[in-house]
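Data availability (excerpt). The following record was deposited with the supplementary files.
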Amino acid sequence: MKIAIVADRDTVNCFKLVGLEHTYSVKDTEEAEERIRELLEIVDFAVLITTDHIANRVRATINEVIEEQKFPLIISIPSVSGLSPLVADPIKELIKRKTGIELKL
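Predicted structure:
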């Protein structure tokens, strides 16, 4: 199983420096969503990393994957340029959708 990252150029370059082979630099949200959908078609990927900024903008696609597929695990991280506020905690949202229970932490 493989790991891939879809992110801005600076974040992708950091992952290239540590040896990640499957890195995809994108310029905007539309390109990011297109690349993520392409990678979802490939069954070899166990983990797909993206930035919080991208994840917040393609949340519908990510939620669709989380609900329908076991893999890849989609992880969002802060970009190299800095933290971005999360729209919603994806794990809490998943629990709420699947069980109807809202967690308050």
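Summary of structural features: The chain has one domain: 2-99.
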